[in-house]
Amino acid sequence: GQSLEQPSEVTAVEGAIVQINCTYQTSGFYGLSWYQQHDGGAPTFLSYNALDGLEETGRFSSFLSRSDSYGYLLLQELQMKDSASYFCVLTDSWGKFQFGAGTQVVVTP
Amino acid sequence: EAQVTQNPRYLITVTGKKLTVTCSQNMNHEYMSWYRQDPGLGLRQIYYSMNVEVTDKGDVPEGYKVSRKEKRNFPLILESPSPNQTSLYFCASSLSPGTRDNEQFFGPGTRLTVL
After folding, report:
1. Percentage of residues in chain B with pLDDT exceeding 90?
2. Nearest CA of chain A to the CA of B48: how many Å?
3. Interior angle at CA B49, CA B48 and CA B50, nearest 5
4. A35 contacts in B (CB within 8 Å)?
5. Which of B42, B56, B100 sits opposite A95 (nearest CB)?
6. Strand pairing partners for B112?
7. What is the rounded distance in angstroms from the CA atom of residue A61 to the CA atom of residue B42?
8. Which residues of A touch B31 (CB under 8 A)?
9. Cα torsion angle, A82, A107, B41, B87, sign
10. Mean pLDDT of A32-50
11. Contact A97/B107, CB-based, under 8 Å?
């Protein structure tokens, strides 16, 4: 089976950097993704790591270390619109997606 | 516009009354999936489909049925809804879940209340 753990909430000020950690226990997976969800809205894709290392997409970066069973999402130059929930997601090769419980990011002025 | 649509967006029903939530995508994606979202639990996968006539159980399939007769449609059926199926439901599609093209595109959600 699979399980993912991420913090329930993180608070930071505008312009700051936030790192959301995700640790997992699994017997095997293809990659680790990150999704953003604003209140009442649909989740939207942010980033994906199939291999160890850092993937950068604008202000957002994601990192994966399979040997440490660990990944993180880095949000830089925080903006008010970044206030949302962020989910780490394990993907296998056969169509199963496992979501973490989500991290609520609160950005304050 | 590339999108995933779901209907209805909101539904209040009573225990035992069969209902269907429709899902359609116009991106020619082979993969489609249903999730339910409950407070504090993230999204949990109900069923998924890798292609037409191919469906598999996710983590919480009990009480649900699906069918995939056409590539674009993936309806979710609740034969006898119960109050514990009150939830926010999302449909999603993806080009290829086992590759780097695994990005899922989500519908707007269906908020279901079973009394």
Report:
1. 89
2. 7
3. 125
4. 104
5. B56
6. B11, B87
7. 21
8. 95
9. negative
10. 94
11. no
